[in-house]
Amino acid sequence: MSRRQPDVPALVEAARAGQPRAVARLITLVENADPALREVMERLAPYTGNAHIIGLTGSPGVGKSTTTSALVGAMRARGLRVGVLAVDPSSPFSGGALLGDRIRLIDHALDDGVYMRSMASRGHLGGLSWATPQALRVLDAAGCDVIFLETVGVGQSEVEVAALADTTMVLLAPGMGDGIQAAKAGILEIGDVFVVNKADRDGVDVTMRDIRGMISLGERKEAGQWRPPVEKLVAEKGDGLADVVAALDKHWEWLQETGTLQQRRERRAAEEIEAIAVRTLRMRMGTLDGAGDLAALAEAVVAGEQDPYTAADRIVEHL
Amino acid sequence: MSRRQPDVPALVEAARAGQPRAVARLITLVENADPALREVMERLAPYTGNAHIIGLTGSPGVGKSTTTSALVGAMRARGLRVGVLAVDPSSPFSGGALLGDRIRLIDHALDDGVYMRSMASRGHLGGLSWATPQALRVLDAAGCDVIFLETVGVGQSEVEVAALADTTMVLLAPGMGDGIQAAKAGILEIGDVFVVNKADRDGVDVTMRDIRGMISLGERKEAGQWRPPVEKLVAEKGDGLADVVAALDKHWEWLQETGTLQQRRERRAAEEIEAIAVRTLRMRMGTLDGAGDLAALAEAVVAGEQDPYTAADRIVEHL
């Protein structure tokens, strides 16, 4: 972790000029929570806000990587610069968990207009809510027109990551009971575009019907509301790809026309600011003279001599 | 949510006297993040620290509920008072997701010596790390000798919940590829006792071998280290139950003899204190005059006029 001090102005300039190594280096600074990040973000700020951030979620086995790869190809064919950020919220232990899954994206590995990066969540010190928006910010400022934010696994972390996207695409596959899974995990509420991949398999109609039924159940009737479309796709062959891209475009237009984009981004920025502030405060708690205090308070709580609220008050008072 | 002010001294007394409704009411206060919690925890503090908290994790389908039910029966047969807390970290939206899964535990529903409760995580305002330890504290102070902390789903949230237990039991089943899943999710690192349930099925020996192999790979060689046992179980029939209970007992003894229990509990208490402190600070950020400031700062960040770090500094300065 201890490297020489990065030359931030040069790195930012190189990233802005489209040099993949500079982009990669900046995201590594994010992963390592490098102190230089403050200056990085200050310099990147004026160049952010262009990219359409598309979240991609779905259970293992639905073909997320193949679909991402197909979508990257479609966006590249339109001359757009594309970023792919894959986040693994299920692995607190290592940064390498995603390598196996990334093989599909090797098609695009030598394409200058595509940045790919996987990122493991780093414990709980701010976690996803802290690092992911900043990595997105780097890709955005580096000139990506579209960024795919892919998450592995299901559950609350996935919902959190999806909340960082402008458009959330939920990927399903026939015969996996995904409809029910989706409802359980609250994915229905977060999906802007639903895609049933592997649509050449048996059971595709049942899955389409299930998911449409659930959408109309949850539908809000007001005018101007977005009605999530459900598209069929065979990502491996590219069948249905144009429809999926059109659905993503349409949602992007809707976001802009209705002012929803601005609202979502302001809410996200507020959460990002809060996450950084909380991290700052946590670091102060840990480094406080302070560190000894916390240990002593914990000992008193274990002994039943003090309750955790009173102990927390003591910590907050010291900040 | 708006109820009359709870009579905390009376509630705590009733919970201490073993009244299930009082215990349930106290856990509801935790779920609702009721302001009265501070007084509740203050009064409960002297009565905590007795219970052996056993975390139960495993993929869906391995038979967690059946196993919990069997273990509850075994502990009750020894005259112990038992708590069951089921946490669903995958559902940020509702508190009812677990009802279906809880059917197995109905065997014990009329038993006075068993408290059962399921709890959904409530959004991200401190989340699991905030509410779960306090619910455990209630059950502990209410006189439970053993508390089973059962989690639904896999991933980081599960790892977090498991970290709240004294003993973490990882449940597997033959032929589900659980070995690999376990390794991926980092469950191997957190398991103190491994149990292969449904051990009357094909493939049990492969699963046993896989998991033993992975444990010995990760094994620390120092003397006094705990070597996680791997036990076979057929929870539905009770086969192997005595061995599982013996393994849990043995780990409990090891925790106490080596001082590991004290260490783990102090680390957990420190995290609990920190989580409460962070929540307090977050609430201040949100209610600050303050709320308007955050919105204005978020707008500036979206416009690229300000970076999130500088914005976060402004928030922290105001605290």
Automatic annotation (TrEMBL), chains A, B:
Database matches in CDD domains: MMAA-like (cd03114)
Keywords attached to this entry: Chaperone, GTP-binding, Hydrolase, Nucleotide-binding
Pfam families the record matches: MeaB
Gene Ontology terms, MF aspect: GTP binding; GTPase activity
Matches recorded under Gene3D superfamilies: 1.20.5.170, P-loop containing nucleotide triphosphate hydrolases (3.40.50.300)
Organism domain of life: Bacteria
InterPro entries xrefs: GTPase/Isobutyryl-CoA_mutase, GTPase_ArgK, P-loop_NTPase
PANTHER family for the chain: LAO_AO TRANSPORT SYSTEM ATPASE, LYSINE/ARGININE/ORNITHINE TRANSPORT SYSTEM KINASE
Family: Belongs to the SIMIBI class G3E GTPase family. ArgK/MeaB subfamily.
Protein name: Methylmalonyl Co-A mutase-associated GTPase MeaB
Organism field: Flexivirga aerilata
Organism phylogeny: Bacteria, Bacillati, Actinomycetota, Actinomycetes, Micrococcales
